[in-house]
Amino acid sequence: MAQQMGNQPMIVLSEESQRTSGKDAQSMNITAGKAVAESVRTTLGPKGMDKMLVDDAGSVVVTNDGVTILDEMDIEHPAANMIVEVAQTQEDEVGDGTTTAVVIAGELLQKAEDLLDQDIHATILAQGYRQAAEKAKEILEEEAIDVDADDDEALENVAATAMTGKGAESAKDHLAALVRRAVQSVADDDGVDTDNIKVETVVGGSIDESQLVEGVIVDKDRVHDNMPKFAEDADIALLDTAIEVPETEIDTEVNVSDPDQLQEFLDQEEKQLREMVDHIADAGADVVFCQKGIDDMAQHYLAQEGILAVRRGKKSDISALARSTGARVVSNVEDITEEDLGFAGSVTEKELAGSEAIFVEDVEDAKAVTMILRGGTDHVVDEVERAIEDALGVVAATLEDGKILPGGGCPETELSLGLRDYADSVGGREQLAIEAFADAIDVIPRTLAENAGLDPIDSLVELRSAHDGGDNLVGLNAYTGEVEDMSDEVVEPLRVKTQAVESATEAAVMILRIDDVIAAGDLKGGQGDDDEDDAPGGPGGGMGGMGGGMGGMGGGMGGMM
Ligand code: ADP
Ligand code: MG
Predict the structure, then answer these.
(1) Whole-angstrom Cα distance, residue 48 to residue 39?
(2) 44 lines ligand 1 (CB under 6 A)
(3) Which of 81, 119, 234, 545 is 20 to 30 A distant from 296 in Cα terms?
(4) How much distance in Å is there from the Cα of 477 to the middle of ligand 1?
């Protein structure tokens, strides 16, 4: 550290730290952000390709799911990470549209770079992009189509669209129906909480043997072999307390002066357990789910009463059972009454994925359901599960908002046309930014066409002229290559699109506004990584940590898939 002042520059940063400022910082960040977007671009749409990701330990994930790819890639560059966050926000808010959001963000950066080169200031750009995003939301809302909560067909179309190209293809209709039923079952006045839909995966069997259990599956077996395996028209008790004699009472010092006294003590304990079981039996319970332990002796008494009991149930299972059977969770066994009990037409211990589980079915109003997904191998089941998670998210969003948009680049075409008109009305330098935004949105139909092996220019021109002529439900069908009305088959919730535009804009703007990067240590993946080498492509290093599989992909990641 240089200490003397005078004419010497004062050094305030440590030697390891790195600083990049001005245009260099901007272009470094833009390049990093674009590289991330480029890495998922080829997976977009039903004809998008999959990626095989291999981690340090050699474990393999094969997926088409944007957010999964980015999570697995272990990206370290800070600006690149902002783009990864776009995918994560999208995943949290809607559960689908992650690739779309990231690809748009990358293209916004690309277009921004062109304008920065023309000396348009980043602040103007940011301003224009924000204005464009606001307008985009308005346009999307105007274009949205209303859907009723009981429009099964539309909801299944939404589910099927989210699953296309994700390894669930062969059983898409079957799975779409399961997803629609699952979401409808758990929907209530507050909307849809997809946490009430449990997804269990089973390796073995085929995808179309997947099923929906409208009730709860508890991953436990009954606590005692002498208990029944099945209860019909079952009254169900839920306890969040143990059926045991509280420890403190046993631990209090027992002065065993003679054997009778010990016996008396043990008898006393047994009597207490007997009483607890009697309370449960008197209330009329046929089945008990206990969140805590059940004493051996109590197990024996319960079995004698013909009660099926489960101990150490998960809290989440107990609350799911409460929701779906109407039982009240009891904390004090002495207080249990008939009113506390819930009801299920059938409670059965069955095998699930190689171990026993308790299926609680035929409930009046299944407010919690379980999907059992089957598939031939681990990789297949995992990818089907990701497709199902996306589908659950979009059907839930559709039920909540009641608005959908046609897919296949339809809303994006409408947006880019609408935004160009809007740009004209704004004028000034912002106009350029809004036009750039409009151009950036075209990346979606263009990429859908490219990934489907179609000519992107032809497709874009055809889409535009259709929309110009007032056919605003028209999109590009990736299967037929036709530009046609998509509204009664390929549809997505409005929220997927509004959220994608919003988070892509936020991330792009945030990255553009940075003109100084000060890193405490080595900026992994930054251009500083390879010393003198200031060529773009620096972020390649940022994808480190992918093990041998992806190391050194450099800028050309797209090309490898
Ligand atoms: P994301 O992670 O953004 O959801 P996907 O790979 O799921 O990415 O692709 C979504 C895009 O694919 C959407 O733009 C959607 O409209 C489009 N899409 C879905 N089905 C079709 C289809 N049959 N033809 C054309 N585009 C489709
Ligand atoms: Mg999708």
Answers:
(1) 12
(2) yes
(3) 234
(4) 10
For ligand 1, atom 26: residue with the closest CA? 408
Strands 342-352, 355-361: pairing is antiparallel
* Nearest residue by C-alpha to atom 11 in ligand 1: 45
Residue 145 burial class via C-beta count within 10 angstroms: exposed 0-12, middle 13-18, buried 19 and up: middle
Select which of 286, 340, 390, 529 is catalytic.
390
The SS3 of residue 542 is: helix
- Residue 484 phi, psi (nearest 5): -150, 170
What is the radius of gyration, based on Cα positions, of the chain? 30
Strands (E), 165-227: 197-203, 211-213, 216-218
- Is 401 within 8 Å of 494 (Cβ atoms)? yes
d(CA 317, CA 368): 9
Q: Which residues surround ligand 2, an ion (CB under 5 A)?
A: 96
- Rounded to an integer, what distance in angstroms lies between the CA atom of residue 342 and that of residue 357? 19
Q: What is the pLDDT of residue 7?
A: 67
Q: State which H helix or E strand residue 204 sits in.
A: none
Record the tokens describing residue 421, joined without a space: 């008109």
Each residue of 192-251: pLDDT tens digit? 988 889 899 999 888 889 999 988 999 999 999 999 999 999 999 999 999 998 765 555
359/308 Cα distance (integer angstroms)? 12
CA atoms of 162 and 91, how far apart (whole Å): 13
pLDDT of residue 265: 78
